[in-house]
């Protein structure tokens, strides 16, 4: 019995020992074969991975002229353990810095995530090629310093800041949202740079080196067998005409507002100006953060892209939409006439300027009669077949939204706003259900009230008129190197209006610009002898100051090549500023020359900002 018990204990002990050995072997197998954590940890002690940064793709204008290119800069890295005493003043002077800046850089370097005195960390970022050249000549004197080549953006000429956007360093959110990015990487922050980041950024490469216990490089790992090269970003050809863009920015100097020009048949944006603007080179290099803060604090908001983010009342330009809806709904015909004796006086007064009266539909556009469109609007909303004001208004709203108002047009730029087209529920809440009528909201007849649009939407509207009832979603990129463009920018968006009705609107817009003297045409200043421009003025009421000057147009009449909207804040009548600016832009684009240098000089030298300040 004793022998049997002892034998059993030996078996148990043997089994336990075997299980322990099996567990140890299993753990070793897991660590060495399955789990790579320890392998990478060990590898990181003997290997050093140096990122190879690709050059971002170029951005060209529609004719292949570079708008955004790259220039070399250099990050200076430091391995603090290897640094020997050095002349700080000489070091700083060579790099164009102060001694305090260098000292601060050393302090900040030690605060970086994962800092180790044995590992290379970024000390100074984006040292210019000129300053680096001086440093490189004497770099042998400074132990512990390394160089990381990079590229940053260069804008020449310095135009289209809002459209092109800028590049900045990634933050924690960027890294969390996309594993491609690591600390120190750059990313598009706004404009085309942001929308097409995945195309422009390229693909990072890596070089792997063997290092000793002090993190000193001892040579390439496996003769570079596992190195990868950086793949440059793809070049982008934009839809922008750089010469037209630059010209528009000059015309809008010392003015607040926007110009948007579109090629009607394609939806390609030819120019997009937001004024005031800024030099995009200010947001490049070591001074980017300081310059951004200055721009951000500027009361004129130069960073704000008014083209797609500012909401304005469309004013009298909106009359063409009400005319089209009235024709489609059969509540007005081209021969319908209304008399105007200084305004619409039913219930609520809507004033009007002096012009020939009565007018038919075409003439009402020519002379921009407020009274005419008060009648048209009420005819639409109160159409008997709708049965109620709510149904009539909903039908009107559906027509308006088919022109792209009240919705995003899905331009390939970030931060586009959709504008405002009020709803039945809005008025029910504001006035109470059943407490409002077509007369209550009569201001919508002339593009005022609760209606708000962006300059881009206005340009898209006039492009739709030029196309007689359809538009292609506006876009700012024409082609991508080795890639295809989003199919969205080839699809036609049809309005709810039959094409035949657009001919009457076009005739009215033609007469508004090209009508005979004394006919009441509101935009004769925009006329050109060799280009038939069709346009519509607007003077948008502004409760916070002087009215806004508005104009949109397309040209030539019979084969439209350009559709344009111009919005100048606090500038008065549409014919005073917006119309001549649009006319100059059209002539510049179609003829590449200006036949009215006196008008060009007058517009370019006008300082509406100074006038605005004096009026306050």
What amount of the residues lies in strands? 15-25%
Number of strands: 20
- What is the rounded distance between the termini? 114 Å
Q: Number of helix segments?
A: 22
Shape: elongated
Unreliable segments of 5+ consecutive residues: 37-42
Which structural class is indicated by helix and strand composition? alpha+beta
How helical, in percent, are the residues? Answer: 25-40%
Mean pLDDT over the residues? 90
Largest sheet: 6 strands, mixed
Please give the radius of gyration in angstroms: 33 Å
Characteristic terms for this protein:
about 625 residues, alpha+beta, 6-stranded mixed sheet, 5-stranded antiparallel sheet, 22 helices, 20 strands
Characterize the structure shown.
This protein is an alpha+beta fold and 616 residues long. Helix content is 36%, strand content 18%. It has 22 helices and 20 strands. Strands 2, 3, 4, 5, 10 and 16 form a six-stranded mixed β-sheet that branches. A five-stranded antiparallel β-sheet has the order 12-11-20-19-18. Strand 11 and strand 12 form a beta hairpin.
Task: Produce the secondary structure layout.
Blueprint lengths: L1 H33 L2 H10 E6 L6 E2 L5 E13 L9 H7 L4 H11 L11 E8 H9 L7 E11 L5 H4 L2 E3 L2 H6 L8 E3 L2 H5 L1 H4 L4 E7 L5 E4 L15 E3 L3 H10 L5 E7 L4 E8 L12 H10 L8 H4 L9 H10 L14 E2 L5 E2 L9 H7 L2 H12 L7 H13 L22 H8 L23 H12 L3 E3 L4 E4 L11 E3 L7 H13 L19 E7 L7 E8 L6 E7 L9 H14 L5 H9 L2 H8 L1
Parallel strand pairs: 2-10
Antiparallel strand pairs: 1-8, 2-3, 3-4, 3-5, 6-7, 8-9, 10-16, 11-12, 11-20, 13-14, 15-17, 18-19, 19-20
């Amino acid at each position: 019995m004793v022998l049997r018990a002892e034998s059993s204990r030996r078996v148990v002990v043997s089994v336990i020992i075997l299980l322990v050995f099996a567990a140890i072997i299993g753990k070793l197998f897991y660590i060495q074969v399955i789990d790579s954590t320890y392998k990478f940890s060990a590898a990181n002690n003997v290997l050093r991975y140096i990122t190879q940064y690709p050059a971002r793709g170029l951005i060209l204008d529609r004719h292949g002229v570079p708008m955004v290119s790259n220039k070399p800069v250099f990050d200076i890295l430091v391995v603090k353990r290897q640094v020997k005493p050095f002349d700080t003043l000489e070091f700083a002077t060579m790099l164009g810095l102060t001694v305090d800046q260098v000292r601060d850089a050393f302090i900040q370097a030690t605060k970086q995530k994962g800092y180790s005195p044995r590992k290379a960390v970024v000390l100074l970022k984006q040292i210019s090629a000129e300053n680096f050249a001086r440093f490189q000549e004497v770099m042998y004197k400074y132990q512990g310093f390394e160089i990381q080549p990079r590229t940053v953006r260069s804008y020449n000429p310095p135009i289209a800041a809002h459209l092109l956007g800028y590049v900045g360093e990634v933050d924690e959110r960027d890294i969390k949202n996309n594993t491609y990015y690591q600390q120190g990487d750059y990313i598009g922050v706004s404009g085309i740079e942001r929308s097409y980041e995945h195309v422009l950024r390229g693909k990072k490469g890596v070089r792997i080196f063997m290092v000793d216990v002090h993190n000193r490089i001892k040579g390439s790992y496996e003769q570079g067998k596992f190195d990868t090269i950086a793949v440059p970003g793809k070049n982008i050809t934009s839809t922008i005409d750089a010469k037209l863009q630059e010209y528009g920015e000059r015309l809008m100097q010392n003015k607040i507002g926007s110009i948007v020009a579109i090629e009607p048949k394609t939806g390609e944006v030819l120019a997009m100006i937001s004024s005031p603007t800024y030099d995009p080179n200010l947001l490049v290099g070591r001074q980017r953060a300081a310059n951004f803060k200055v721009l951000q604090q500027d009361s004129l908001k130069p960073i704000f892209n008014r083209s797609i983010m500012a909401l304005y009342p469309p004013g009298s330009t909106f009359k063409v939409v009400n005319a089209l809806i009235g024709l489609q709904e059969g509540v007005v015909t081209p021969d319908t006439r209304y008399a105007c004796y200084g305004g619409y006086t039913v219930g609520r007064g809507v004033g009007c300027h002096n012009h020939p009266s009565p007018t038919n539909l075409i003439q009402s556009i020519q002379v921009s009669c407020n009274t005419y469109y008060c009648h048209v609007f009420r005819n639409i909303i109160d159409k008997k077949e709708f049965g109620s004001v709510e149904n009539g208004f909903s039908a009107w709203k559906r027509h308006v939204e088919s022109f792209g108002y009240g919705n995003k047009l899905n331009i390939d730029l970030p931060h586009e706003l959709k504008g405002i087209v009020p709803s039945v529920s809005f008025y029910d809440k504001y006035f109470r259900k059943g407490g409002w009528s077509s007369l209550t909201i009569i201001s919508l007849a002339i593009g005022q009230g609760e209606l708000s649009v962006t300059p881009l939407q206005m340009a898209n509207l006039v492009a739709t008129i030029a196309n007689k009832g359809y538009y292609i979603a506006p876009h700012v990129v024409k082609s991508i190197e080795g890639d295809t463009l989003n199919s969205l920018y080839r699809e036609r968006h049809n309005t709810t209006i039959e094409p035949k009705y657009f001919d009457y609107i076009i005739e009215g817009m033609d007469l508004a610009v090209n009508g005979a003297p004394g006919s009441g045409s509101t935009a004769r200043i925009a006329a050109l002898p060799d280009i038939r421009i069709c346009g519509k003025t607007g003077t948008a009421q502004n409760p916070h100051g002087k009215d806004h000057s508005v104009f949109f147009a397309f040209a030539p009449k019979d084969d439209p090549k350009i559709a344009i909207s111009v919005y100048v804040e606090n500038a008065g009548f549409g014919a005073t500023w917006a119309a001549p600016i649009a006319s100059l832009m059209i002539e510049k684009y179609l003829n590449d020359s200006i036949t009215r240098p006196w008008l060009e000089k007058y517009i370019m030298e006008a300082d509406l900002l100074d006038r605005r300040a004096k009026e306050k």
